[in-house]
Amino acid sequence: MFEKVLIANRGEIALRIHRACKEMGIATVAVHSTADADAMHVRLADESVCIGPPAVRDSYLNVPAILSAATVTNAEAIHPGYGLLSENASFAEIVTEHGFKFIGPRAKHIAMMGDKVVAKRVIAEAGVPVVPGSDGPVDDMDAAIRAADEVGYPVLVKASAGGGGRGMKVARDERELRHAIPAARTEALAAFGNGEVYLERYLDRPRHIEVQILADEHGNVVHLFERDCSLQRNHQKILEEAPALVLDDAARHRIGEICCEAVRKIGYASAGTVEFLYEDGEFFFIEMNTRIQVEHPVTEAICGLDIVRETIRIADGDKLSVRQEDLAINGHAIECRINAENPETFAPSPGRITEFHTPGGLGVRVDSALYSGYVVPPYYDSLVAKLIVHGANREECIMRLRRSLEEMVVGGIETTIPLHQRLIAEPDFATGSYDIHWLERLVAGTK
For residue 319, is it within any domain? Predict the structure, then answer.
């Protein structure tokens, strides 16, 4: 097993990786910007190295600085967490070329799934159902119009690279398409350095269902069932739960087996998440994330398996610690993403934490790097905590979540805790009657 791992990330996921490493007897190295000098993962790590000023391009995306930190601390492996460099194929390749182990999939698989057009083709060839759309990227407006006519309006214009809702526009007719194509290209170019876009059929009220898989380098693959991530705003997930209410055991088994077979065919090894839109009993592949997910704790809660630990073991060449027949769903879990934002306008709210109290009790987990006196910097993603609750069933889980949100205190900044309290009080949430557009309708007052 590795003796020392460098964590190339920040915030709660850096702390999560640190904790997994320490429980495995692995020493940790924290890298940080000047703005994160007092961060919790920096305080707890065995060693820390400052890799640059606050801007991510000068610190957390500074590959030479990260490699230098790994070299001077004699780290053996690098864990990228999520976001930042986690799905950068070039980074994974450079890490390997410099003699370190990249705790994640091979660079070729990151590149394959990072290009949404290529991913869609590869995954379709592996037998996974996909959303009807253009046959590859649309190079000009005439090609886009022809493709839209074939697919049928409304259509979704999507960036070939990247994700997170950037470079995505909906067009309900040709007039809207003529505006959406250049807008999506401009946004995608600014966000990912690649302005290539393609078209998919736009589904009106689908659910966002994703399947968590684990695969080792020995050909063993398991799925850890699914998560429902339909509560989103601007294509950004707000709340996730597992298992999904809309799936029965037959559908769950079918899509899980399809995903396992697909990743087995391409030789994938590590944690990965295959994401679908689900409507009227049909699954449509949208993308595969080749990294640990923000929402992985809900899967851990219902499966009793440490996914971060498994990724480290896989990277070290070990076989999976479980077989598919060892896995079963235990109860229900929900995760609320607590962001440093105004709960109504969603304006960022950085600042000093004056008070921090987390809820406790049976089935309650909080993943956060906050502490009283810590200053939430204005330079990074607004996620500051994840509240995860687990219950014997969904009703118990919701009651526990309601109680936990009432107990949680984050003083000194605004957070989205009130938003979560509002949405879980909605009758539609209680019955599970929501789709990927439901939260936006709620916020806009049009639900």
Answer: yes
Catalytic residue, candidates 185, 291, 365, 400: 291
Tell me the C-alpha distance between 244 and 254, whole Å.
Answer: 14
Total of domains in the chain: 3
- Do residues 106 and 82 make contact, with C-beta atoms less than 8 angstroms apart? no
φ/ψ of 417, rounded to 5, equals -55, -45
Helix axis angle for 307-315 and 296-303, nearest 10°, is 100
Pick the last residue of a domain from 201, 227, 252.
Answer: 201
Return the structure tokens found at 93: 């390749």
Burial of 345 (0-12, 13-18, 19+ CB in 10 A): exposed
Strands 409-411 and 355-357: antiparallel
Among 180, 201, 222, the domain-final residue is: 201
Token pair, residue 407, equals 């107990």
Q: Give the structural domain span for 24.
A: 4-86
Average pLDDT taken over every residue of the chain: 94
* Catalytic residue list contains 323: no
Rounded to an integer, what distance in angstroms lies between the CA atom of residue 245 and that of residue 227? Answer: 9
Tally of CB atoms within 10 A around 167: 27
d(CA 250, CA 256) in angstroms, rounded, equals: 10
Identify the pLDDT of residue 447.
65
Nearest Cα residue to 178 out of 143, 226, 202: 143
Residues 334, 229 contacting (CB under 8 angstroms): no
- CA 346, CA 414: separation in Å to the nearest integer? 10
Is 236 found in the same domain as 177?
Answer: no
- Residue 432's contacts (CB-CB under 8 Å, 6 or more residues apart) are 245, 246, 394
Q: Looking at the predicted structure, is the pLDDT value of residue 164 above 70?
A: no
Co-location of 310 and 360 in the same domain: yes
Of 14-18, 57-61, 142-146, 419-423, the range with the lowest mean pLDDT is 142-146
